[in-house]
Amino acid sequence: MEHGSFGDESVATFSLNEEDHTLANAVRFTLNQDPRVRFCGYSIPHPSDARVNVKVQTTGDPAKEVLKDACQDLMQMCEHIRNTFDKTVGELKASEAVKKKNSHSQEKAMDIDSQESDSESEESESN
Amino acid sequence: MGLKQEEILLSNNSINSNVGEIPIDKQKLAAPIKSALDKYQLVPEFLKVRGLVKQHLDSFNYFVNTGIKKIVCANDMIVSDVDPVFSSGLKMYAAPILVNIEYTQGSRGVKMRAEKNDLVIGRMPIMLRSCCCVLYGKDEAELARLGECPLDPGGYFIIKGTDKVMLIQEQLSKNRIIIDADKKGNINASVTSSSEATKSKTVIQMEKEKIYLLLNQFVKKIPIMVVMKAMGMESDQEVVQMLGRDPRYSALLLPSIEECAGINIYTQEQALQFLEAKLKRSMYADRASEKEGRALSILRVVFLANVPVRSDNFRPKCLYVAVMLRRMMDAILNKDAMDDKAKQVLRCHRSYLFKNSRSLRKHKRLCGEQASGAIWQLISLLFEDLFKTTITEVKRHIDTVLSKPSRSSALDPSLFLRTKEIITGGLERTLSTGNFDIKCFRMHRKGMTQVLARLSFIGTLGYMTKIQPQFEKSRKVSGPRALQPSQCYSLGVEDLELLSGEELHTPNSFLVILNGLILGKHRRPQHFAVALRKLRRAGKVGEFVSVFVNEKQLNKSVVVVYVGVRILVILKHICLRVVGMHIFWKLFDVELYLCADQLCVYIASDGGRVCRPLVIADKGISRIKEHHMKELLDGVRSFDDFLRHGLIEYLDVNEENNALIALYEGEATPDTTHIEIEPFTILGVCAGLIPYPHHNQSPRNTYQCAMGKQAMGNIAYNQLNRMDTLLYLLVHPQRPLLTTRTIELNATVAVMSYSGYDIEDAIVMNKSSLDRGFGRCIVMKRYSGVIQKYDNGASDRILRPQRTGVGSEKMQILDDDGIAAPGEIIRPDDVYINKQSPVITRGSRITSAEPLPDKVALSSDRNENPCIKILIRHTRRPEVGDKFSSRHGQKGVCGTIIQQEDFPFSERGICPDLIMDPHGFPSRMTVGKMIELLGGKAGVSCGRFHYGSAFGEPSGHADKVEAISETLIKHGFSYNGKDFLYSGSAAYALSFSLCPFLGS
Amino acid sequence: MAGQEEERGDTKKKFSIFDLPDVPMGQLPDHLQLHRTRVLCNNDAPIHTESVQYSGAYATVGVDNSLRFDHFRNNFRVEVVRLTEEDMEFDMVGIDAAIANAFRRILIAELPTMAIEKVLIANNTSVVQDEVLAHRLGLIPIGVDPRHFEYLSENDQPNERNTIVFKLHVSCKRGSPRITVKSDELKWLPNGSELVKESTPSDSASKPETYTSFSCSQETIPEFAKNPIAPKYPDIIIAKLGPGQEIELEAHAVKGKGKTHAKWSPVATAWYRMFPEVVLLEEVEDDLAEELKSKCPVDVFDIEDLGKG
């Protein structure tokens, strides 16, 4: 869902349902790192609502696109983190010949990513 | 009335023993202290002997064994006005009160005697654990088999299914002269007299320089000289001599003498005539008094009732009046006394108080005429009233029957005795409502009993030991939240005055006063006191006898009151009396005390004074040596042995003024006469729970005393078998990391501002902690239904539930017997007893979320009607709006519940259970709480329970802040307990926060 | 923004500001650099706690604060410090706290696990109340991969793909000493519930209807054939039974997330912390150095030979 000014594409507030600080804070980070962003921030309007409002103000580009890119960035970042993590853990296991299976942490890392992409896709749908 | 209240003072330890902490504490506390002897073990020993609620039990036992018999014996004749004479004698008294009746019937000159034994005249509610109770004398295993909690102290009544406790009433002690000033500034000397026969209050007032007597029986104030003359002191000279030779006293008396002369009263006869005219009209005209004139009879019986008149010798009464006058004049003359007036009044109250009378000011005049205090006194008054009513009723019946011209059958008075259930109903009603309304003693008092709240074990004990204060809180001397000085021991403020020694001077001569009765005179009061104390320590005199010499006032003039008894005789007399009383009435813990503020030696042996055991010290060295304690630990020596061998003695408030008591052994100087057994025994049950109370602002401690009673926890071992109306239990109770005592809940607490939902003392809670069972509690509620029988023979019945058709959905939880099955989940509107009354069918309904029946009990009520009780259990987790409290009077409601991932966490990954606002600290000044937080944190990191009771720091028992900080540093924390926290929601570090652990 | 993040770790490394991978070409003044890369622990409170995220924050001094993905890709690395079955500690170098915190939050609240949600109590005469018992059972971790299961939504029938059924039937004989019920008493029922629904019309021909409708035994599913499902730890105390007491119940575990209830949280806890750095403001020598070394309870300091400088 998007609300805010309808005339100016560079300013928008996105309301994400069923999300909290987890996604919003990370997206804010990637948004902020984007040079096209003039301002961004998020708020949780009420603690008993599972909802986050993300406000994006750009230097001219459509806010929608910038947010999509930011999510894309985040996804890529997570992808990379996951690969690096898997690699390091794999190497560690191999080198130290750790017999014990480390499914626990791997699992987590994988789920992190799937989760990230889930929320991203959901968010783009809402756009 | 052996209301020994020292149990209250020492209460905290029994809880210790109850929670089973003693073995740990013994080891922990005994080990490191070498220098000062550890007398801690004496406390549990003492409690074994005296118990916490002993005063209730003793009192009730006394009533049942002695008091009730006295009442019945005093009213054992029913004399019918019409013809025969009936008398009844009493046999034994248990729950059913039984009497033997013997009646004599005179008919046609022949006297017939008939006897009937064991007639039930009523049922007496029985105090639990008293000598009539089935639980009396049972040991722990037996109690457990009976399904009773062995830790339950008893001492309360169960009336109509609720626990009722009678409060200890604070009361001005009787038969003592109290100098007071009324609103107009007139000096009063008042005596609340109480003898077995009469209770009265005599006030001597000085108004406009003239002295008057105020007595209820007289319409107006009576000039005091008239009274003296009426008692046979016709010579003014004699009266003046009695007051002392000092011209100042005679000058003060002069206006009164002149006034007396002014109304032309010179002889006893004239005085009596004068008094006769001022008498109030009395409805109960007494035959005996009419013969000799009612005025004299009142002087004899009512005026200063505590001074006995033997063979018409009024001299002791005259002496007593003289002493009262003398005291008043001292107060007027002596500037110190005048300036000290407020204080003196206060002191009088403090030392002379104890129990009774909820509002003295309101009932001041009434109060004088009723004496009631300890439970047995109140109950016996009540019983007496009811008994008299019964007897009147019976008499009326007999008279009606006898006055009938033709009687077909022989009269059987026993038929009338139980006609109206006066006694049973009256006792029950009074105890359950707490409204004492006793007609024949003109006593109307409310709130004498309270429901024994079973919210927590501490609350229960707190109620049992609660003292109903005498004064309303609005009284000037104590602000609304100030502590009552008279309760200093039970609420936890040490009175510094007790520690100041009083210099000894050689006084001229001292009155010896036993229980407010002038016995005689002694020139060397110290010797007298020392001799008495020696006797007491040797066990020859009762252990609660107190001797109090007050020599502050060095007045050269001698009080010229001679009774002419030699000292040895007095001593012998006192001893005889004391020992005699002690043996005769076991319950009257006899005490003597000497006082000489007014050049007197007071010996007190009446009950109801607060006494506490103290270790005797010779020249500052404790009499208890290490080998004594070893013997105690080995079980060779008991607390009684300590008493008997003169190592410990009981002191009451008056005698404490003669003693110099050291708080710790190390502080003792050669002047010290006594040493405290354990300083923390000064605190009461509730106050003893507060860790580091001496670091807190005092009102916070007071609040906590009140709030501690609302805490949840475990109430008794048999808590799951009980059928209480309302019961709260904690699912996972814990022991505080910072021990004082009790079961509570430990929580990881962060003190920080967070999310704005914690303003105004609110608390932010961690949802995951709640998920994991933090603060979960069980609420039990009882519902009951009675299967009533009706007059026409019909009765209620319980039906099988309908399984199909209309209404069946409401009956899903019912078993085939029509009563709810335990364990079924109840939905709103469910029927839990399918009861059918003759007229309409109805079921009881409740509406609340997801409770379930825990137990169903079938029983019968008093009228043999079957009765079904259902205990509904409801487990609930903390929700927004629930109240939480720490042990420092800092309560707060839960403001919001936040997910764990949003909660801040420390560098070690510790996530607090709840967050408190730091703004609650500066204004409340609860430094003790900060220390508790620190101590809890240190306790967790080093795996040891910390100890933090008041007075513990100097004696080395408690953990000091320095030690706690060191522990923290050793485990890698900051010495000040602060931690570096990260925000859980956004990714940044938060400021430092205290992140420790405490009981909530 | 701290250049390095550490997750669940407490190792130490030699570190210098200028080694930071993301320091741009144009240099920032020292104080800004410090502000940007460090949280300073002052005596009263930490400062510079909020990371500077805005890409144009230092535009005026000619420093670009934006993220370049390739730069991140080249510099990010993971170092595992400790790895055991239940415990892991690793450093993540070159990542912002915002991302690290997202991982922490996901670990706690959004990863699904299996946990006991529904308890059917046939008989419970122990002192532990039914609902307390159910709560305790719920908190027992179950050793199974939740990826093999689906969520059980409200309208679903419990089947072999979304429900695990355990049975607990313990009794303490009269006269015997009291026993402790531990989690190893929970027996997996691969064929689903054995309790028969009361309300079903007794149809002798068909199988009686139970509380689950498994189409096949879970044992036939290859993932569980080798690894029978059981509580993760066998020694978790569930209840204590006195003589004559008995517990008979069936526990149904379903898939859920830690957000709903902490019992579905796969971790005991997960946390990150920033990399600690201790800077000595001046040289500490000789006795003072010894003293400093002995003061620290966690042995942060060591003494170097001064000769080398």
- The helix/strand class of chain B is alpha+beta
- Per CATH, the superfamily of chain A is RNA polymerase, RBP11-like subunit
Using DSSP, what is the number of strands of chain B? 43
Distance between the termini of chain B: 40 Å
What's the number of domains of chain B?
A: 6
Distance between the termini of chain A: 6 Å
Percent helix of chain A, as a range, is: 55-70%
Query: What is the radius of gyration of chain B?
Result: 33 Å
Measured by DSSP, the beta-strand proportion of chain A falls in 15-25%
How does this model look, in words?
- The complex is a heterotrimer of chains A (127), B (1000) and C (309).
- Chain A has 127 residues and is an alpha+beta fold.
- Chain A is built from 3 helices and 4 strands; from the N terminus they run ββαββαα.
- Chain A has one domain: RNA polymerase, RBP11-like subunit (Gyrase A, domain 2).
- Chain A is elongated, with a radius of gyration of 18 Å.
- In chain B, the strands form 12 sheets. Chain B has a 6-stranded mixed β-sheet. Chain B has a 5-stranded antiparallel β-sheet with strand order 8-9-10-11-12. In chain B, strands 21, 22, 23, 24 and 25 form a 5-stranded mixed β-sheet that branches.
- In chain B, helix 7 packs across helix 10, helix 17 runs antiparallel to helix 19 and helix 30 packs parallel to helix 32 (961-970).
- In chain B, 31% of the residues lie in helices and 22% in strands.
- Chain B has 6 domains: 1-51 and 466-501 and 610-685, no CATH class; 54-170 and 373-464, no CATH class; 177-352, RNA polymerase Rpb2, domain 2 (Dna-directed Rna Polymerase Ii 140kd Polypeptide, Chain: B, domain 3, Alpha-Beta Complex); 504-608, no CATH class; 703-719 and 732-771 and 880-999, Beta Barrel (Dna-directed Rna Polymerase Ii 140kd Polypeptide, Chain: B, Domain 6), CATH 2.40.270; 777-876, Beta Barrel (OB fold (Dihydrolipoamide Acetyltransferase, E2P)).
- Chain C has 309 residues and is an alpha+beta fold.
- Chain C folds into 2 domains: 4-109 and 270-303, Gyrase A, domain 2; 112-264, RNA Polymerase Alpha Subunit, Chain A, domain 2, CATH 2.170.120.
- Chain C is built from 6 helices and 12 strands.
- The longest helix of chain C is centred in the middle third of the chain and has 13 residues, at 97-109.
- Chain C is elongated.
- Chain B binds chain C through residues 720, 731, 767-769, 771-773, 776, 778, 823, 852, 854, 873, 875, 899-901, 905, 907-909, 911, 969-972, 980, 982, 984, 986-992, and chain C through 8, 39, 41, 44-46, 49-51, 96-102, 104-105, 108-109, 121, 124, 127, 129-132, 135-136, 139, 258-259, 261-263, 265, 269-274, 297-298.
- Chain B: Belongs to the RNA polymerase beta chain family.
- Chain B: Residues 174-341, 512-553, 639-669 form the RNA polymerase Rpb2 domain.
